[in-house]
Specification:
376 residues; 15 helices; transmembrane helix; mainly alpha; disordered C terminus
Length: 376
């Protein structure tokens, strides 16, 4: 799974810049600027999202890693299989097929943490899954690529970007660790940081989208087939991830989290692996796919967030219409939007409890308020 770099001409990564087409040379400069800017913003963002993580809940995920196990199964079981099925179904060329498969074998991207926060997902599980999938990629990426390409006749060996995986892991864990410490020692200040992080996440997504469009112009040789796959691949990943989490009796909050983690891949890692493994001529045909995938996974994420917000608003209004009398009783204790949102989350999470313990009765999850003892 690594390229033979014994000579300077044998490895694409060691070729001189004069051999690169003008479009790809400009593409590389833009990518360098984009990488630096996004790395700084991502570090600040992960620090702010780390302020939403509680040590106690994180420890529970480690002690009973049911959600993490399901997430890893989705990441390195479902996604590579879906990529292989898409390659076979669309009868792609070998160069295009390997780009799709590499994308399917990549670990989860940190962009999923932003969307998870916006859909009131399990942030402890989301960050744990991103970190665990990045670590697991050290062994699972070469294993999956070997299994699915063993029958293919590849001209180049595939180079796993271990250095890039390590950098991604460091950029993820260190800011999150600082955020967890801030949340533990200064919980009030962490809420302010978290709000700023939500705004920063929106800015980062805009920057990623604009940069993706600019970089995609430099690789305009993509065909309609690759664009179609880049559109449906993350969407299928989100849907199958949600269904698998639902079949394993995860809570609705965890189902949303696992769904977003499954469909969101690490685009930068895929691009790095392609650059290390293939020639400039092949890259012209291959780089358009990960860039298009990144844009469409942002679009899918926004659609999921919008659908969730609409569902949540409808659920609130429906609950008010169904029980106006009980709403008046609860109104004496709390009428703030934040507490109403928390009330909805408690009812939602009480329906299914994660792990093998099974369902939990609703009246045990509502706490001491006594506003409702059961739900119609």
């Amino acid at each position: 799974m690594r390229a033979n770099c014994s000579s300077s001409s044998a490895c694409p990564a060691n070729r001189s810049e004069e051999e690169l087409p003008v479009g790809l040379e400009a593409h590389g400069n833009l990518e360098l600027v984009f990488t630096v800017v996004s790395a700084v913003m991502m570090g600040l963002l992960m620090f702010s999202l780390g302020c939403s993580v509680e040590i106690r809940n994180l420890w529970l995920h480690i002690r009973r890693p049911w959600g993490i196990a399901v997430g890893l199964l989705c990441q390195f079981g479902l996604m590579p299989l879906l990529a292989y099925l898409l390659v076979i179904s669309f009868s792609l060329k070998p160069v295009q097929a390997i780009a799709v498969l590499i994308m399917g074998c990549c670990p989860g991207g940190t962009i999923s943490n932003i969307f998870t926060f916006w859909v009131d997902g399990d942030m402890d599980l989301s960050i744990s899954m991103t970190a665990c999938s990045t670590v697991a990629a050290l062994g699972m990426m070469p294993l999956c690529l070997y299994l699915y390409t063993s029958s293919w006749n590849l001209e180049q060996n595939l180079t796993i970007p271990y250095q890039n995986i390590g950098i991604t892991l460091v950029c993820l864990t260190i800011p999150v660790a600082f955020g967890v410490c801030v949340n533990y020692r200064w919980p009030k200040q962490s809420k302010v940081i978290l709000k700023i992080g939500a705004i920063l996440g929106g800015v980062l997504i805009v920057v990623v989208a604009v940069a993706g469009v600019v970089l995609a112009k430099g690789t305009s040789n993509s065909d309609i087939t690759l664009l179609t796959i880049s559109f449906i691949f993350p969407l299928i990943g989100h849907v199958t991830g949600f269904l698998l989490a639902l079949l394993t009796h995860q809570s609705w909050q965890r189902c949303r989290t696992i769904s977003l983690e499954t469909g969101a891949q690490n685009i930068q890692m895929c691009v790095t692996m392609l650059q290390l493994s293939f020639t400039a001529k092949d890259l012209v045909q291959m780089l358009s796919f990960p860039l298009a995938y990144g844009l469409f996974q942002l679009l899918d994420g926004f659609l999921i967030v919008a659908a969730y917000k609409m569902y949540k608003t409808r659920l609130k209004s429906k609950d008010r219409r169904k029980s106006p009398g009980r709403a008046q009783v609860c109104h004496k204790k709390s009428t703030s939007p934040k507490e109403t949102s928390a009330f909805l989350e408690v009812n939602e999470e009480a329906a299914v409890t994660p792990g093998p313990s099974g369902p939990v009765e609703l009246h045990t999850a509502l706490g001491p308020t006594g506003c409702l003892s059961s739900r119609a």
